[in-house]
Design a protein that fits this description.
Layout: H1 5-10, E1 20-24, H2 31-44, E2 49-54, E3 64-66, E4 72-74, E5 76-78, H3 81-95, E6 101-104, H4 113-123, E7 127-132, H5 157-161, E8 166-170, E9 185-188, E10 204-207, H6 209-218, H7 232-240
Parallel strand pairs: 1-7, 1-8, 2-5, 2-6, 6-7
Antiparallel strand pairs: 3-4, 9-10
Bound molecules: adenosine-5'-diphosphate and magnesium ion (MG).
């Protein structure tokens, strides 16, 4: 039951804060499958919800989200977190209340304003489900797009994961190398070094942390022993006079 909106202007906290369901993990771990399952359960429960996805580039995006298993659900394609608010206002104008839930796919591709939007939705009593990559192809927390063009984004996925009322729903994929279902990393098999490189099985594979590091060391990405000041290997090398 959505709270009385007018009361929220005096004290902007719903009687029950909305739960934030964080569905995160590497590519192919079943994040979108899980998000679509949650959507199905919301409709069985006769809840009203909106599904969003960020536009990745200037191409015309299909207004739906697809899982690797071919499951699909219609979605509102937005350019920015600001547009999520526009759509919520449009919804409010029409139905005089906020939806019960908001679902976001590929949350890591939004701008950093999405952290504030999710926090506020929770405070207003709206349940949030977000699905996204926790780390990028280099194995570090996925940074959001900057709110202002040309600036550096100050926030990354960890800021979203640490919001109060968040329930962690970590997904694991099957490691492409050892076959165990312990893959937490997305390994880029292609050559590019850019942060965002849209691709599927031809460009990325799921790997456990051991096989992720192994691949990155082989491609010369980690040269820790060269960093004499901060790396353990670098200091040991000096100590051993190698
Ligand atoms: P995500 O949104 O996390 O990228 P999806 O929910 O779209 O993942 O798809 C998950 C499906 O991908 C699995 O059910 C499985 O059929 C398929 N898949 C392909 N490669 C893998 C893998 N390495 N580990 C697990 N599932 C995989
Ligand atoms: Mg997905």
């Amino acid at each position: 039951m959505a709270p009385d909106i007018r009361k929220l202007f005096d004290f902007p906290l719903a009687p029950r804060l909305g739960r934030i369901n964080a569905i995160y993990g590497p590519m192919f771990s079943g994040k979108t499958n899980k998000l679509l399952l949650e959507a199905r359960h919301l409709s069985i429960a006769q809840k009203d919800y909106l599904v969003f996805k960020p536009v990745l580039d200037d191409r015309v995006e299909e207004a739906c989200i697809d899982s690797h298993d071919g499951d699909s659900h219609e979605a509102i394609v937005v350019q920015s977190s600001h547009q999520i608010v526009d759509e919520l206002l449009r919804y409010f104008h029409h139905s005089k209340e906020l939806p019960d839930a908001v679902l976001l796919n590929e949350v890591q591709f939004f701008d950093e304003g999405v952290v504030e939007v999710v926090a506020e939705l929770s405070m207003l009593g709206v349940e949030v489900y977000w699905a996204g990559l926790d780390t990028d192809w280099r194995g570090v927390p996925f940074h959001f797009q900057p709110a202002l063009e040309g600036a550096t984004a100050a926030k990354h996925i960890g800021d979203l994961l640490l919001l109060p009322r968040t329930v962690h729903d970590r997904q694991y994929a099957v490691c492409k190398l050892c076959g165990r279902k312990n893959a937490t990393m997305t390994y880029r098999t292609g050559e590019g070094e850019g942060l965002v490189q849209v691709g599927g099985q031809d460009t990325y594979e799921a790997r456990c942390s051991r096989h992720f590091y192994q691949g990155m060391i082989e491609r010369g990405h980690f040269k820790r022993e060269q960093d004499k000041l901060t790396s353990i290997l670098g200091r040991l090398r000096e100590e051993l006079d190698l």
